[in-house]
Amino acid sequence: MRDVMPSSPLHAPLLAWYSRTARDLPWRRPDRTPWGVLVSEVMLQQTPVDRVVPAWEAWIARWPAPAPLAAEPPGEAVRMWGRLGYPRRALRLHAAAVACTERFDGEVPSSEADLRSLPGVGDYTAAAVRAFAFGQRAVVLDTNVRRVLARLLEGAEHPRPSITVGERALAESALPDLDGEAAVWSVATMELGALVCTASSPSCHACPVEAQCTWVALGRPAYDGPARPVQRFAGTDRQVRGLLMAVLREAHGPVAKAALDAVWDDAVQRECALDGLVADGLVEPLPRHRYRLPGVGAGHDG
Predict the structure, then answer these.
(1) The whole model's pTM is what?
(2) N or C: which end of the chain has fewer CB within 10 A?
(3) How far, in Å, CA of 278 to CA of 273, rounded?
(4) How many domains does the chain have?
(5) Is the pLDDT of residue 49 over 80?
(6) CATH code of residue 266
(7) Which is higher by pLDDT, 263 or 194?
(8) Is residue 112 part of a domain?
(9) CB neighbour burial string for 118-131, b if at least 16 within 10 angstroms, e if fewer
(10) Do the domain assignments include residue 11?
């Protein structure tokens, strides 16, 4: 493991590379708001950037601040979430909007404690909002950042399955001292992992810190840690849940059970998926075997 001092020669080349090559993403622009950054961070969890951009733009056009979203039923957030996947994130964003409106005068708070008090905001999201919305010095550890730091500082192809105290301390030591510079370092490291230091096909020749990379210096040794999980989608409960949610999103009121039954032949798996959606608060059961997104079409319950 390599110790990194605040005056590390890693900072300048990476920051210069980012200033030249950073993607023009709407939540990075000068007119970004803390709410826009929070929405982007929640949407980007387990979802590629190219799918998030249009969804983020539509969301912010409709709900440019927490209060307009808080005034809507949570089912509208689920509807707008579309096919981004993991729709519970939409419910958490709605709950966070309510909390911002009721407790923080309609604004996204800037302190770690206040951010962590918002529904669905954990260590990573709080740190990302502090850095990218407020320019604070915070340890931002997403998948891309962890992979870059594992290679650059520890000589490992991939990071450990879960974040350790040592990994967090090493990431902290790599941050520049100044708030603004540290915030840019965090997003630059993230960008490097997304575009250059990728999981399966890293372009080391294009890396601005190749000369300082421990993994390259060691001859790029192969990963020898625990097996990394491979996610599948076809035939899973997640696919069934997505099909059920698609029917409910396209409706503007209650949906008959028969319409949901038509999306999947395996009745046992379908019923388990529907029960799970109800338990998660994503679907609301109604009398006479009907279902709806939570709070949507409340005037049609009878």
Answers:
(1) 0.84
(2) C
(3) 9
(4) 1
(5) yes
(6) 1.10.10.10
(7) 194
(8) no
(9) bebbebbbbbbbbb
(10) no
